Amino acid sequence: MKPIRANPVVVLRGVPVLMVLGGAAADLFGPEPYLGLPFLASAPLLASILLHWRTSVVTAAVVGVVVAGVDLQLRRPLPALLVDLAIVVLVGVIGLWAKWLMDRQSRHLAVTQDIAEAAQRAVLPDPPTRLGSLQIAARYEAAQAEAQVGGDLYAVRATPFGVRAIIGDVRGKGLPAVSTVCQVIGAFRHEAGRAATLSELADRLHNAVTLEADSSKADHSENFVTALLVEIAPDATKASLLSRGHTAPYLLRAGEVAMLEPSDPGLPLGMDLPSADGAARPDIVDWPSDAILLLVTDGITEARDRDGTFYDPAVGLAQIRSSTPRELVDSLARSVTRWTGGQRQDDMAVLALKPAL
């Protein structure tokens, strides 16, 4: 049984109240005068950090009343009372100003995150909900940590060889990552129906990433894309999987979760290392009609909670009961959000495929 742990944020919100009570008691009953004033003066500042705007103002007002009451009770002279109140007002104003700055920064971060997601969706539109003999669902969410456009990508395309899909993760963030995402997605859409095999398709995508690195004069070892390529047979009974350094996919069926580790993974696209062979051969897996194939990026596998513990997709997925790809990707996103407390450090992209009955 998991032990019940107090929410540290809730506990901290009670600290200003304790500081007011403790400061008043120290002033009234302490061995030295003004022993509690530092606690009383700090309470509004701490409240402005931990509490809402109105509550912070109320806290500052309460502290002012308490300070005046304590000084009157101890019969301190009027100049001392005015100085004490001035200190409380000054600290309170500083705290409220800091609160205003933090709220403005939070709003700016939220707007920036929305812009990042909008930009990402502009270069990464959702795939069709049904393509050929497949049901499809995808989901992308930007990281809260930096609110920058990231390098996660996915695409699905019908080809003469069956439905082909890709999910990948470009190293880095910002405009360089967006440029590489556009390059890879464009190359995939152009080459998916031309390359006879997944290995050939991977080679063509590798050349596209390498060309992008050459044009930008980037170091090939620093400009690469992890990718997982998928080819679904026309009858949707088998799936071919080719990994180029990407996170392994999952096959979900009747509450069971199987991680499909590649038997012969290759190097990420665009990574040219001395004496390194990036070639990889696809794995062919049986695909029951009631099973869902789930492709994810490391925004899922490397999501961490407040203690730094990584999210385990196999455990999380085993607790999800979803009959459609859309239900699965939405449930997984909620599960990861609960695990991280809404503070993801990386982008999250998910693509789910299921035979259409």
Automatic annotation (TrEMBL):
Residues 131-355 form the PPM-type phosphatase domain. Pfam families: SpoIIE (PF07228). GO terms for molecular function: phosphatase activity. The chain crosses the membrane at residues 50-70, 82-102. Keywords: Hydrolase, Membrane, Transmembrane, Transmembrane helix. InterPro entries: Bact_Sigma-Reg, PPM-type-like_dom_sf, PPM-type_phosphatase-like_dom. The keyword Membrane applies. This is Membrane protein. It comes from Actinoallomurus iriomotensis. The lineage of its organism: Bacteria, Bacillati, Actinomycetota, Actinomycetes, Streptosporangiales.
